[in-house]
Design goal:
The chain is an alpha/beta fold and 355 residues long. It has 15 helices and 13 strands. α1 crosses α9, α3 packs parallel to α6 and α14 runs parallel beside α15. The protein starts with a strand and ends with a helix.
């Protein structure tokens, strides 16, 4: 089976490639902007899959399956959707459980989506992630084709993606290890969430490949286990103390209004301020009962692995300034790379009003 994986080097892509490569009858073609060495049945195609010239070169042939991890705005997907569907027997579109509206019951695939019910004119005027995914799902449904399968993962973690609320590891672990306070708004801390181990999501996708019953269907792939973000934070603090001896300083502020000034406010308002608990009965009807890795066991393993050799991505210095302002702390300017970032930090630390 020839399988194209667009953007296959992330938290879900890496374990998916590994699982699929174990079947030596599969030939995998994986796009990435970073150069990787080819392996026995894995060919890495170096380039930006958002670039039309590179994309068209990759789709100069047909594939049995295309798994698309790329994040598009609605117009970008509309432009290339016909080509994607024409060049494969089964196209996997990665949507997101962020497309769901608030729900007082466990979320099912038939639950209301933001794109269907949201009345916020300011938000609707955007193509923010939660809305874009719903609109892009609608594009698929309007094609009058059914050689597609929609996947709606929620928060997916591995040893390089360890989330807290809206934060990635750079936004809270680095502060914690540097001895600065981890700041979490109470309205987020009190919400329930689901976090799913990357290889568990990958395993479910493998079982849907080639399954004609999955054509024209949408599935969220999430654990049904859930905890509040405060419970997750308390667990993180315990593990970091156990592994490093560092006692993490935490401050819970009353609400997320200040954070919304230095972060994507829509992600907060239309996702992290909702309880996210899921009903997996649909996908279990397709593949049977599955035991997901328990959240605390998986987070312990991934956080422990990360702490052995921390690697950081780009920092959000406006956010760091907000945290320091809330905690009465100061990040040394020598620790901030570049004059532009120093000025951003100074502006938001000393001149912004968060109330």
């Amino acid at each position: 089976m020839d399988i194209l994986i667009l953007g296959g080097t992330g938290a879900m892509g890496i374990p998916l490639v590994d699982l699929l490569a174990r079947n030596k009858e599969n030939n995998l073609y994986v796009t990435s902007r970073t150069r990787y060495m080819n392996k026995e049945n894995i060919i890495y195609l170096q380039g930006n899959a958002k670039d039309d010239i590179f994309f068209n070169s990759v789709l100069s042939r047909n594939y049995d399956v295309i798994v698309d991890f790329m994040v598009y705005d609605t117009k970008q997907l509309q432009k290339r959707l016909e080509s994607l569907l024409n060049h494969t027997n089964q196209y996997f579109f990665f949507s997101s459980a962020r497309c769901y509206a608030d729900s007082k019951e466990r979320i099912k695939e038939s639950s209301q989506r933001l794109v269907d019910v949201c009345q916020d004119s300011e938000y609707i005027a955007t193509d923010e992630y939660g809305l874009a995914k719903g609109r892009e799902e609608n594009l698929l449904k309007k094609t009058n084709r059914n050689n597609w399968t929609i996947i709606r993962p929620y928060i997916t973690y591995n040893s390089q993606r360890i989330q807290l609320g809206v934060y990635e590891k750079e936004n809270w672990i680095k502060r914690a290890l540097a001895g600065r306070t981890v700041v979490l708004p109470k309205d987020i801390a009190d919400r329930k969430t689901s976090l799913t181990y990357g290889p568990d999501v990958a395993g479910a996708i493998v079982q849907l490949i080639g399954n004609e019953k999955a054509f024209g269907e949408a599935f969220h792939i999430t654990t049904q286990e859930s905890y509040t973000w405060k419970e997750i934070l308390d667990f993180y603090c315990k593990i970091i103390y156990k592994r490093t001896g560092k006692k993490i300083k935490v401050k819970i502020v009353k609400d997320s209004k200040g954070l919304q000034k230095v972060w994507n406010k829509w992600q907060i308002i239309y996702d992290r301020l909702y309880d996210r608990e899921f009903d997996n009965s649909k996908i279990e009807s397709f593949r049977g009962k599955y035991e997901y890795k328990p959240i605390f066991k998986g987070l312990d393993e991934c956080l422990t692995e990360f702490l052995k050799a921390p690697k950081w991505l780009q920092m959000n210095w406006a956010y760091e300034a907000w945290c320091d302002s809330m905690a009465g702390e100061m990040t040394p300017l020598k620790d901030i790379n570049g004059m532009k970032n120093k000025l951003i930090y100074i502006k938001w630390r000393f001149f912004a009003k968060y109330e």
